[in-house]
Amino acid sequence: MKRFGLRPLMPILLMLLMACNPSTEPIKSFSLSIDPANLSLGQGASETVNVSLERTNFTDPIDVSLQGTGGTALPAGISATFTANATGGSFNISVANTTVIKEHALEVKAVGGSITKTTALLLNVTAPAASDLTLELNPSDLTVTQGQAGTVAVILTRTNLTGDAVISLQGTGGAALPTGISSAGTTIAATTGSLAINVAANVGVNTYSLEIKAVTGSITKMKPLTLKVVAPAASDFSVTSLVPDKLSLEQGKSGSTVINLTRNNLTADIVLSLQSQGGAGLPAGITAANLTVTGNSGTLSISTTAALAPKDYALEVKAVSGNLTKTTPFTLTVTAIAVPSDFTLSSNPSSLGLEQGKSGTTAITIVRTNLSATIDVVLQGVGGATLPTGISSSFAASSTGGTLTVNATASAALQNDTSLEIKAASGTIVKTTPFKLTITPKPDFTLTTGTPTLTIEPTFSKPLGVTLTGNNVSTSVTVSLQGTNGAPLPTGITAAPVNITGNNADVLNIVVTTNNASTQDFSLEIKAVGGGVTKTTAVTLTILAAPFAVNKATQTIIGWKPGELGDLLSATSDNPTIANYTTPIDGTGLVSYELPIPTVLSAPSTLLATYCPNTTNLTFSSSTVKGSERQFGAPNSAKTTYGSLIISNDTITSPPKLGLEQAFVVYLDGDVNVTGTCQNSSGIIVNVNVNAQLKQGWNILVGKVITVSSAAIPVVGVEVTSRTTVPARYAWRYYPR
Predict the structure, then answer these.
(1) Residues whose CB falls within 8 Å of the CB of residue 659, separated by 6 or more in sequence, listed in order
(2) Which of 447, 499, 439, 452 is nearest to 471 (CA)?
(3) Fewer CB within 10 A of the end CB, N or C, for the chain?
(4) Is pLDDT at 604 greater than 60 in this prediction?
(5) Is the backbone peptide bond immediately before 349 cis, with ω within 30 degrees of 0?
(6) β-pairing, 186-188 with 659-667?
C-alpha cells in the first residue's frame, strides 16, 4: 500500500494560491495643466506660459507641443519654443508684427507612450502699445566741491521702446552749460546708468539750474538738475596716534614707532622728526632721521649708542606741513646692555623608527640663557628642506623643553635611517640638532585560498589550504573559520585555528560531524588576524546528504538521492529489501545479509555484507587487479596496480568518528576475488568473501564505515557496478537514525 505525503500536492496548491492572488500592475498615467490659460500679447511681443506635468507611476518621456485646436497648425505669425524641466517646462510664445489681431484658440499637447493629453490656451493678439520713455535722477540736487566731480544716477522706464538712450547735460531749456561745468555724456542700453559732472576749480560758488536730456529715436525727455558748487574745506592734519608711544631699547639698540595721521583737505607732504620735549635737540647718543610722509602713516626709526645713559627720556614727535606744525609726546626708555639671549637644544632619542600610520615622540631639552620668549620647535629636512612625503610633526612645550611628536601617514614614503634635523627658533636665534628617521611598511598581508568552494561528506573532514602573501606582520597570524560577518560556525562544523608566520601557507582541517538527510550549503569566511590587521575571504561549504543507512526495524536499505555522491541507486530497485536476516553468531556480533545479485553480473557471483563489532583491524585484499583508485573526499589519484590491492584501516578510537574511512574504485580485467578479514577485540576473526566473474571494464568498490555511538556496529560493504550497461549499484553503511 502506497502512502502519499503533502509533497506531490504542492504544485497544485501553488497554482491555486496564485489564481486567488493575481498581481496587479500599478496604473501609469500623467496630468497636464498650464498657467496662464488666457494670454494677451501685442503684435511683436512675446510671453512665457508654464506647463505642469504630474506623473503617476509614469517614467516614459513626454513630448510637449503647441498647436491649433484639434491638432491644426499654429496661425501665421505665432511661434513657440518649449524648454523642459523636472516638473514640466515652459513655452516662450512670440507674436509677429503681422499676426492677425484677434483671439486665437490654441491647445497644448503632451504625448507620452500611448497616452495623449491636451489643454486649451486662448491667445488674444492686440495692436502694439505706443512707445514712450520716462526719466528719473538720483539725486536731483547735487553738491560738488570746486575742482572736483560728482555723479548722478539715471533711471529710464521704457514702454514698447528699444535702442540706446543718449544721456547729456545742458542748461535749462537747452542753454549752454556755465563755464567750468562739463560732462562727457553717456549711453544707456537698458534702464540704468550714471552721468559724471565735472566742476573746475574756478567755477564760482553758487547754485546752478541745469537739466539732463535723454534721447532715444524720436523721443526726447528732460529732467531738471540743481547743481550746488561749494568751496573746498580748509587744509589741516592731526597726529592720531604713536604705536608705541613708549619705547624701551637696550643701550646700542634701535627701534621704531609708527605715526598715524589724519588729513583734512591736505595733500601736501608731512615731515616727521624726533626732538626733546619743548623743542630742544635730541640728547647725545639718540638719533632719528627725518621722515617725509605722503600718505596717512609713517615709521620713524630711532637708534641709540652703547654709551647712552640708561634712563627714561622725555621726547616728542614733530610733524610739519607748510605752516602747520603738530607735536605729540613720546617716551624712550634706555636699559643697560644685558647678557646675550641664547639657548641650547638636544633631543632624546635622536632617531625614531615608525610604521606607516603610526606616531612617535622624542623629548626636547632646551636650556635658556636670558631668554623668556617662545621657542618654536619643528622637524624639517637638512638645511630647512621639506619633510619626506607623509611625515609631519607637532610640538608640546614645557618649562624645560617639551615633546616633539613625529607622525607618519598610512601612505608615508618609506625611509631607511634618513637624515633630518630638529629646528628650534626664537626671534633671530635658531638652533638645529641632527635626527634620524626610519619608516617601515605598515603591517599588512593578503589572504587567499585555493578552494573558494568545498564539498564534504557528512561525518568527514577535509583540508582547506590558506596562503598569506605580502605578510610583514612581526607576530604570527591566526587563521580561523567562522560564519559570515563573524557569526559562529553552524552546528556540526569545526575547524581548529592555525598560526602562520611570514609568507607561508597552511591547512584548516574542516570537520563535519552532522549527518543530515539533505545536502546543505553554508556561506562561511576565513578570518586572519595578526599585528592589528584583520582580513577575511569568503568560502562556500557544501555538506552532502547522508549516504545509505540500514533501517534495522524495517530491514531495508535507505538509499542516497539521485545526484548526490555519484547516484549510487540501482536502476531497477532504489530500496532493495534485506533478505535472510540472521541473529549474531556465538556472541561475536557477526550478522550476515544475503543480497540479490545484480543482473548485469555474469554468474556465479555472490555478495556478502558483514557487521563486525568492536573492530580493531580490517583488511581487504583482491587478486588479479589492474587499474586506478579514487578515495572519497579527496581528489582522484590515478594508479595502476598489478597483483594485490590491500586496504587497511587504523585502530578505531573510542568514541569512534562517524563517516567513511576508506573507499576505493578499482577498474578490473578478468575475474576477481575480494577477501575481507574482520578481527574484533576478542580476537575472533571472520572472513568475508566476494567471488564475482566480472567483465572487462566493470569496477568494484570496497569500503568501511563506522558510527559515533560506542554501542553502534561498524559495517563492511562491497559494491559491484557496471561501467558499460545500466547501473546497478549496491552499498551498505550503517548510520543511526
Answers:
(1) 457, 458, 459, 460, 705, 706
(2) 447
(3) N
(4) no
(5) yes
(6) unpaired
SS3 371: coil
Q: What's the rounded Cα separation, in Å, for the pair 643 and 87?
A: 88
Length of the chain: 737
Average pLDDT, the chain: 76
Name which residue leads in pLDDT, 55 or 589: 55
What pTM, to 2 d.p., does this model score?
0.33
The contacts of residue 85 (CB under 8 Å, 6+ apart) are none
Cα separation of the two ends of the chain? 24
For residue 624, what are the contacts with CB-CB under 8 A and spacing of at least 6?
A: 668, 669, 670, 671, 672, 673
Could you say which DSSP state residue 290 is in?
A: -
Quickly state the pLDDT bin for 624 (edges 50, 70, 90): very low
Sequence-ordered list of residues with C-beta below 8 angstroms from that of 439, at least 6 positions apart, any chain? 353, 354, 355, 356, 388, 390, 391, 408, 412, 413, 414, 415, 418
DSSP 245: S
What's the CA dihedral at 32, 37, 42, 44 to 10 degrees?
Answer: 0
Q: What is the pLDDT of residues 280-306, one digit of tens each?
A: 999 999 999 999 999 999 999 999 999
Asked if the model's pLDDT at residue 44 lies above 80, the reply is: yes
Which H or E run includes 400? none
Q: In this structure, what are the phi and psi dihedrals at residue 17, rounded to the nearest 5 degrees?
A: -65, -40
Q: How far is CA 202 from the centre of its chain?
A: 73
